[in-house]
Specification:
The chain is an alpha+beta fold. Among the domains are: about 5-210, Rossmann fold (3-Layer(aba) Sandwich); about 255-355, Double Stranded RNA Binding Domain (2-Layer Sandwich). About 20% of the residues lie in helices and about 25% in strands. The protein is built from 9 helices and 19 strands. It has helices at about 5-15, 20-30, 60-65, 95-105, 125-130, 145-155, 190-195, 280-290, 345-355, and strands at about 40, 50-55, 70-75, 90-95, 115, 135-140, 160-165, 180-185, 200-210, 215-220, 230-235, 265-270, 295-300, 310-315, 320-325, 335-340, 365-370, 375-380, 385-390. A hairpin with a 7-residue loop joins strand 9 (about 200-210) and strand 10 (about 215-220). Helix 1 packs antiparallel against helix 2 and helix 8 (about 280-290) crosses helix 9. The longest helix is centred in the C-terminal third of the chain and has 14 residues, at about 345-355. It is globular, with a radius of gyration of 22 Å.
Length: about 450
């Protein structure tokens, strides 16, 4: 049995391919031919690095034959480790089950014109061509080296879609309008160009994440007035558009917190420091949206008292803000240390109240709207019940300081212009600080991780 047939059998037997047209496409496009000669696999020494391995390596072969994403580029093409090791995954050939979930969410007709954001290795592009014909597929890729490699392998397989080298966030206006837009890279803010270049009634399918929460798959339908709205339809861990990456995607909590720095203020908060660690997917989406850039690290007391030191800090927007909350189950307000322009405990408290008031919605009840003037609105159940904070794409509605966070110049003032290619099934960050072992805090109640 061929690799393509084996993969198609696995996905159909698991109920992951329900459209016969996409089943035929998977059978016709062998994934293995789009895997480059060198890929990066997690190092087995537990260091967190990814080590380069040849395509012929057993581990790589197992990944090709299975339902796994395979990293095909690290550190934007310049691995930062010794012996070619890389740290940050920046391109991949996506996880097959996720690829098919996204393709089927497009709900295409045979004559639909599709814009793909992130050509990557070209496998997803080839599937689109097989299903819709080359003439109906336009794909854009920022990284020239990645794009040319994809072009070469697509041509060897007999596919000649329209390939554009450029910033995917800008779309491909010269080839618009499109019936469908499919992003193979995550957005934190849906770029207005994607909505503008999609015809009314058209569909945008994109991974969406908040830096804090795991990625989710968003399906938007574009309206006559130039707005778009839709629901989150499943998990989708992808890398971010480079322009929307966290300001600091790497680094531990100690890189953001300095209790000895000037300007540290002590006080108390009514926000329970434990709330930030709540694992509900809906809460994580809401707090990540309403408290942009937030991350945390939590350390339990070693004396079984139930106490904990909880640090929250701004990883994403580079405001320099952080806060410490000293949790005790015996108290109803908690000691704090804070530094920076943002009151993170207050922001988290407001987000918690908003989530509670909406009935503690899970991911399946949440959706997103993009207004005609570029505001992005998270809502529960229906667009008529939005959460309190709306965001304009890449800035805070033209105000000198964000009305929600108080960050001068808008919450995104610290964003850096970095881009990444497609990576399906590979998280944007290796882990969240609050989910991984870390050293005991340098001060506080002597807690241990």
């Amino acid at each position: 049995m061929s690799q393509a047939a084996a993969l198609a059998r696995e996905l159909t037997s698991r109920g992951l391919i329900t459209d016969p047209a996409w089943h035929r496409a998977v059978l016709a496009v062998p994934r293995e031919r789009f895997v480059p000669q060198t890929v990066w696999m997690p190092s087995r020494d537990g260091s967190g690095w990814r080590e380069p391995l040849p395509k012929t390596h057993q581990r790589v072969g197992e990944a090709i034959d299975g339902d796994y994403a395979i990293v095909t580029q690290t550190d934007d093409g310049a691995p930062t480790g010794t012996d070619g090791r890389g740290w940050l995954a920046t391109s991949s050939i996506s996880q097959p089950s996720l690829v098919l979930a996204m393709l089927q969410a497009l709900d295409v007709c045979d004559s639909d014109r599709v814009l793909e954001i992130g050509t990557g290795t070209g496998w997803n592009t080839a599937l689109l061509c097989q299903r819709l014909t080359d003439a109906n597929v336009t794909s854009i890729e920022l990284d020239r080296e990645v794009a040319e490699a994809a072009r070469a392998v697509l041509e060897t397989q007999g596919y000649k879609p329209t390939l554009v080298i450029g910033d995917g966030a800008a779309g491909a206006a010269e080839h618009a309008p499109f019936d469908r837009v499919l992003a193979t890279v995550a957005a934190h803010e849906v770029p207005p160009a994607w909505v503008e270049q999609t015809r009314p009634g058209g569909v945008i399918v994109t991974p969406w994440c908040t830096w804090f929460s795991p990625g989710v798959l968003l399906r938007l339908v574009v309206a006559e007035d130039g707005s778009a709205s839709g629901r989150f339809v499943g998990p989708a861990p992808f890398m971010m558009l480079r322009a929307q990456r966290s300001a600091s995607p790497l680094g531990d909590w100690q890189d953001f917190v300095d209790e000895d720095a000037p300007g540290v203020e002590e006080g108390r908060t009514a926000t329970n420091p434990r709330w930030i660690a709540h694992r509900d997917d809906g809460w994580r989406l809401v707090v990540g949206h309403l408290v942009p850039g937030v991350d945390f690290a939590s350390f339990e007391a070693s004396d079984n008292s139930g106490e904990a030191s909880v640090y929250v800090y701004d990883r994403g927007t580079a405001s320099g803000s952080w806060a410490l909350g000293e949790y005790s189950p015996e108290e109803t307000t908690w000691e704090t240390k804070v530094r920076g322009p943002r009151d993170l405990w207050a922001e988290i408290g407001r987000a918690w109240e908003a989530w509670q008031a909406a009935g503690r919605p899970g991911r399946e009840r949440l959706g997103l709207s993009v207004t005609a003037d570029g505001r992005q609105v998270l809502w529960a159940d229906t667009p008529a019940t939005p959460f309190g904070r709306q965001r304009r794409h890449l800035r805070c509605a033209g105000t000198p300081a964000c009305s929600y966070t108080g960050v001068p110049g808008g919450w995104c003032a610290g964003l850096v212009a970095r881009h990444t290619s497609t990576c399906g099934g590979v998280p944007a960050f290796r882990s969240w600080a609050g989910m991984r072992p870390a050293p005991a805090p340098r001060s506080g109640r002597g807690c241990s991780a």
